[in-house]
Amino acid sequence: MKSISTIVAITLFGLLPVAFVHGQGSPKPAAGEKSAAPAGAGKRTDVYHVHFTKAALGKAVQLGDWLKTPDRSNPMPDHFIVLRHRDGDAWDYVVITHLGPKGSVEAAGTAVPPDKRDLSEWHTDTFVNGPSWEEFTRAMGIDADSKSKTTGSAYSVSYYRPAPGHREQLEKMLSQPVGGRGDTTAGNVLMQHLEGAAWTFLTIARYNSWEDFATGEKNSIATTTNKDSPWYQLREHAAFHTDTLTDRIAP
Description:
- The structure is a single chain.
- The protein contains 5 helices and 12 strands.
- Strand 4 (80-87) and strand 5 form a beta hairpin.
- Mean pLDDT is 87; it is low at 5-22 and 25-34.
- It has a single domain, classed as Alpha-Beta Plaits (2-Layer Sandwich).
- It has helices spanning 60-67, 133-140, 167-174, 210-221, 230-237, and strands at residues 10-11, 35-36, 46-55, 80-87, 93-100, 104-105, 120-130, 154-162, 178-179, 187-195, 201-207, 238-250.
- Helix 3 runs antiparallel to helix 5.
- It is an alpha+beta fold.
């Protein structure tokens, strides 16, 4: 996507370790069942730029084409993913760009070509910390060995703001290992706000297919009424959250 490389005023720091995430309805693993540690369950060493954007009227195709075009002026032009809204929040695309161990912002800002300025009605930009690019690409199915085989993947993108005094509890809930009976996710990522929008945590759950997503949702219904289910836990600790289903248009 477009250049967000920087040099001057703000250097981002404070990459605090956190654990990780999965869909809010995923059942807990049964005794003896194996759980998969989500990407970012250990050190979260890298900075990413998260760009949510709503297309201007009649400009959705042009905006999508622009967002999925690598910016060759970036040091790592291919280190990004573009997801397209299918059902959920008001935005049309989210672009997540890997910056490396740190990121900064130039006083000159980011140049947008004149013919692209009117493609978006609104957008938000947020810097987050997350797992290494290797872990991120593996979880999202866009590593070199997988991306040609995962074009049919479904992605659930969620962001959360904790209730006052409940940040640690929400983080712990989102950090639970994924796996066990009923879970159909193929990869999970948890990221934490550094600078930008009003949310604190961002999660992405990947499913190999829309059929797997539907199966996972169906499997979770039976556990929703349990008092310790993720559905109830979320409503104990989050003041606000959104869930949006997406498909992938790049890479």
